Amino acid sequence: MAERRVDWLIADASLAMLWAKVPGENPHLVRRAIRLLRDIQLGQWRVIVPFHWSLEVSNAFRGAVAARRLSVKDAQRMETTVLRFAEKNFFFLQPPTDWSELVRRADAWSVSLYDAIYLDLAARTGAIFWTADIRLYRQWYQRRDLHWLGVGWIGYYPQTGIPLVPP
User: Fold this and answer.
1) What would the pLDDT profile of 105-140 be if each residue is shown by its tens digit?
2) What is the pTM assigned to this prediction?
């Protein structure tokens, strides 16, 4: 029997909000994110996240409570579910790059330090970085010098690479 190939991906906190089906999220993106989650559960993907991912997810749920999209109780329940799944199924990595280099890359790539950590993980591991952050995806898309990085916008899942139609 042939071995099944498993690919690696990096997921940011924006996907966690879609996986939890937080009210107010784009239904198309929720469907695509759930498809990705199912593929993860089926073993088609192994997931890498940076060390601060859980904190980012918690902050996203806090933001949904502040925006009155979720009650505190619902946010806590959803956050617990997402974080427990991640603890069992994801690999949490410290950045393989020292901070001064990450700051240099963030400046060179015109992204936040948080985004630079995700992009750096993609650069170091060869994994595809999936995000629902259209702003970040457009920044990457407009920088042809960064197209060597594997970045996917969840709205295009499962298509990777440069889309035929710009976002």
Assistant:
1) 999 999 999 999 999 999 999 999 999 999 999 998
2) 0.90
In the chain, domain spans: 7-156
Residue type, 115: D
Q: 72-89 vs 53-66: helix axis angle to the nearest 10?
A: 160
Read off the pLDDT of residues 64-104 as tens digits, 9 standing for 90 and up: 999 999 999 999 999 999 999 999 999 999 877 899 999 99
Give the C-alpha separation, 121 to 32, whole Å: 23
- Please report, for residues 93, 108, 112, 136, the alpha-carbon distance to residue 124 in angstroms, rounded to integers and kept in the order given: 12, 17, 18, 19
Beta-strand runs (E) in 51-144 = 90-93, 128-131
* Sign of the alpha-carbon dihedral angle for 95, 101, 104, 109: negative
Considering the segment(s) 7-156 as one domain, its CATH architecture is 3-Layer(aba) Sandwich (3.40)
**Tokens encoding 72:** 């505190």
- Give me the mean pLDDT over the 154-161 stretch: 84
